[in-house]
Every structure is written in C-alpha cells, then in structure tokens.
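HOLO CASE FILE
Compound: protoporphyrin IX containing FE
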Amino acid sequence: MEKQTYSNPVIRWVDDRLPIFSFMDHEYNKFPMPRNLNYFWNFGALASITLIVMIVTGIVLAMHYTPHTSMAFDSVERIMRDVNYGWLIRYIHSNGASMFFIVVYIHIFRGLYYGSYKAPRELLWMLGVVILLLMMATAFMGYVLPWGQMSFWGAKVITSLFSAVPIFGESIVEWLWGGFSVDNATLNRFFSLHYLMPFVIVGVVVLHVAALHVSGSNNPDGIDVKGPQDTVPFNPYFTAKDSIGLGVFLIVWAGFVFYAPDFLGHPDNYIPADPLVTPPHIVPEWYFLPFYAILRSITFDFLFIDAKLLGVILMFASIAILFVLPWLDTSKVRSCRFRPVYKWFFWLFVLDCFILGVVGAKSPDDPVFGVEWFKYVHLGQIGTAYYFFHFLILLPILGKMERPLPLPTSISESVTGGRSDSAAGAATAKGEPA
Amino acid sequence: MADSHADDENRREFLYLAAGAMGAVGAAAFAWPLIDQMNPAADVLALASTEVDISALEPGQAITVKWRGQPIFIRRRTQQEIEEAAAVDLASLRDPEADAERVQKSEWLIVNGTCTHLGCVPGNRVSDRKGEYGGWFCPCHGSHYDTSGRIRKGPAPTNLVVPPYEFLTDTQIKIG
Ligand code: HEM
Ligand code: FES
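Model generated. Tokens follow.
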C-alpha cells in the first residue's frame, strides 16, 4: 500500500502513526474496479448497509424490549404504540430482515451466474456462505423475540430438528431449550445471541471484503483484469453507481415499511405465544421456505437413516454444498455469458429454488393445481432431487462436456468492442502491456 | 555434546507437550460450566408434578394440562376407540407397542401431546381434525396418530410418549 502525504497536518500526524487515511484511500478511493461491472455488483454494498441499519435499529429496539415470556409480547406492542417512533424503528427492523435476505440472495445468484466462486475467489465465496449461515441463525432468533404464536412454534420446530441426532438428540434439545420445552430460558438466550451474532457477522464481512480486495472483483465477462486499461477507480465510478442502487433499494424498503409493513410477516405472530396450541398452519418466514420444503419432502427412510434425520441432513446439506461448489463446477470459464448450455441450467436452478419456496409455503398434503394424486410433497421431492442433481451431477459433468463460446481478449476490448476509446485512452496508453 | 543437545530437545518437547496438555485440560474444565449453564436449571427441574381432577370428562372427551411446560393430553376413550386400539396388528406399526402397555386403565389414555416429529401440538379439541386413525392429527407436517397415540402415518418416528403418572383416586391423577 502506497502511503500518501497529506497536506493537512492533523491528518498527516495521524496517518504517520496509524495509516487509516492511506488505507481508506487505497481500498475505497483509488481501488481499481473492472470497468464493465453491471448493477448486480451493487448488492454487496447494499448488504453491508443493510447490516448497519439492522444493528442501529436493533440496538434501539433493545432499549425498550423485555426478554421475558410474560412481558416480551407486550413490550413489542408497547414499542408499536407508545414508544416515540417505535413503530417506525420496529418496522424498519422487521422488514429489514427480509430486505437483507433479498439482497443477499441476489448477491449469491449473481455469484452463481458469473462464476464468482471460482479460483482465485473460493475462500471469498466460502466466507460468504458462512455469512449466510450466521444471518439465518440471527434472523431465526430475532423472529422468536416478539413471542407471538409463530415465534414460539417456529422456535419449537427448528430447535426440535436437533432431536433427530442419534442418541444425543434429546439431551441436545434440552440443552438448547434450558428446560423441557421452549420457555423463558430459551427466550433469554436467544435474545443474548441475537444481540451478539450481528457483530460476529460484521467480523466475517471484514474478512470477506479483505479477501475481495486481494483478488479484486469478478466481472460480467468473468475474465481477469489484465491492466489499468481494464479498470476504473472505485471513487467516483462505483460510489456513484452504488448510490443509485442504494436509492432504489431504500425506496423499496421504505415502500414496505410505510405501505405494507406486515405484508411479509404472519398475522399469527400478533397472537401471544401459547405453548399448548399450535396454529393450524405454521410456516417459516419466506426466506427459509425452500429449505423448509427440502426438510419436509423426506417422508421415507433411507438405509439405516430414518426420514426425520434424513430431512434434517439434507436441509443442512443444501447450504453446506455451497462450500464445495468451487470444486464441483469443473468448467474453467466463469461467466454464463460464455457458457451456452450452463446458462439454461442456471435459470432452471433458479426456477427450482422458486418452486421449492412455493412448496415450503403449502400444506404437504394439498394437491398441486387440483390434481389429486400429485401433492405438494411430491413436487417438493422432485424439487429437492433436482437441487442436489444440479450440484452433484450436472455441474461436474457439464464443465467437461460443454463447449464454451470464445472469450473476449480483455475487458477493455469487450466494453469498447475493439474501438479506440477516449475515456480510458490515457490509461491505455500508459498501461497496455506490449 | 551432540547427545546432550538431543536431550535438551527431548526435554523441551516434553515440556511443551506437558504445558500444552495442562492448558487444554484447564480450558476444558473452564469450558464445561459455560456449556452446562445452558442445561435445565435446578428450579426448572424442580417443577416435578401436576395433579388433575378428571371427574368432569365424558367418554369421547379430552383435556390438555400443562406439565413441565409441555401439553399432556388426557383422553377418556369410548368403547369403540379402545377396541380399535387393541385390534391393531403390532407388526404393522412403525413403533410397535401394545395398547395395554400404554395405559393403566383402558378408558384413560394419558400421553404427552408433543408430536415426536418436531414438537408441534396436535389439536385436542372435539372439533379438531383427528386424522385417518381417529386419534390425533399434527398439522405441522401431517403426522397421524391412532387412538392409543401411536404413530401410524406421516413423518413422526415414534409414538406419543406416555408420561409417568398415577391414579390417586378414581377421579384424581398425578402426573410426574
Ligand atoms: C444481522 C442483523 C439482524 C437481523 C437479520 C435481525 C432480524 C430480526 C428479526 C427477523 C426480528 C423479528 C422482527 C419482528 O417480527 O418483530 C428481530 C427482532 C429484534 N431484534 Fe433483530 N436482527 C438483526 C440485528 C439486531 C441487533 C444488532 C440487535 C441489537 C440488540 C437486534 C435486536 C432486536 C430486538 C430487540 C428485537 C425484538 C423486537 C421486535 O420484535 O421488533 N437485532 N430481529
Ligand atoms: S411436528 Fe408434528 S408432524 Fe412435524
């Protein structure tokens, strides 16, 4: 990292002792970004901002929230009715969780489409999967805090997943609960962990971004940056582009907060938790639906593994498989732009995730489109099979069979179509390797 | 000379190992309280028993009472339900248990109403769906239990658990 000499004596004094100004300048001002990035590259920045907003609103909510089974529900209602702007802060936080997942899912599918998980970005990708897991745990525990019916039964069902573990299952679940059922001890520890985990996420995000700044960003062509003619500095080019995306994103978020604040939630969560009565139709938040569908689609034993354990294993495996994705995809070409066959399978995979999401929201025994012999549980079984087929069979084989389209020789050639280009002309003249 | 060098090295290695092992034991000893604190506390364990008056129940009716934070179903079975439960071929069951082993008095079925799949509570009111086997139906993922609380269909692996209980009198039971 080159050190700057600042004219302002205070900044210079600090920078000589702790080069934070030089660091920020290097990583966020001058940092070279591929010049062909599209709007899908906004979503990392949007996720970071969402994380900050969640932490700020969460800390404020915690000033009014009471983590006790007899008071939690009422304290949230008090936030909604009596605390100044409490309704606003809570709606930003509760809708923010959904926004966070939308943004992160788009961010992940972006990576899948453009091959951002491939060398040299495998570790960067894996850190991303860690963030996803931590987010899921955080959102799950947060959803328990208002202590409504969905909070309680969601907590009960998800913690009970661990009872599928052979031999130790029951002890693990009692340990998680701190009792013989989801109760006050459970609520308290969930609050403690819900407060902690976002800061752990911040830590992993720092590592994620540090790894990013080693390899630099991937780009829609999926080819390497060859020299300065292929890049533009982060500021002002991407500070501007990110700001436009941020504006749009905040409009959507505000749209939910102000016009449809409960659209993504469940009415049942406005009923106080009752440990003796399960609501007739319990469903997780939308962002967990595909995984919930995988869990429920296993209704048969396999070898010595019973259905319950197998469902749990596959549900966790559906995320764990992302860790090894860089080694399952055998194609050397990163971007789908140059993978004519995989491109179609990518969209098929997106469709599969959507179908699993729909299945997760339905009762397993309901017929699909009124066809009596074809239930949602069957659709879920097909969707689950395809999910794993995509990763375990299709990707390894396709990389070997598919004939990719010719790659452009460089990013600058692909953006200018080979024409001489005045904007980057100066850089090209200096930087083009002979 | 060379020899004493090797000795030194061995000794150093031993010291590293011994110190490391002591450190690991110490860390584990310290970790245990941090882990065990999450297990049920003494006051939770102490909530041992509940007494219930069942004199008001007519055949075909059921009530739910709370024991250790969990729902306990007390069902006064009809003659037909008792016969159905007894007539089942044990070999056809996922978790084979005779009805006689699950009740003290055949009229009274007392089970923990927590679905053994993932912990939902099947509906226990007269108007609730009873499932294909006339016992209970768990709405969460569709487990069907029979009139002995045994799993017959759906994802749950085992029968509804029979809690420890005793009849204090004909109309008074103690759970736990
Ligand atoms: C990774 C970032 C975070 C996510 C994804 C998240 C998610 C959630 C969710 C889904 C809820 C339930 C919303 C509802 O229906 O009411 C919730 C509630 C809550 N969260 Fe967070 N949260 C995050 C960060 C934080 C932080 C840093 C705090 C600080 C203590 C916090 C404190 C709370 C409190 C007190 C509640 C209960 C009040 C309420 O239900 O509105 N959260 N959170
Ligand atoms: S919890 Fe009862 S069927 Fe899943």
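CASE NOTES: The first strand of chain A starts at residue 32 and ends at 34. The two ends of chain A are 26 Å apart (CA to CA).
CLOSED: yes
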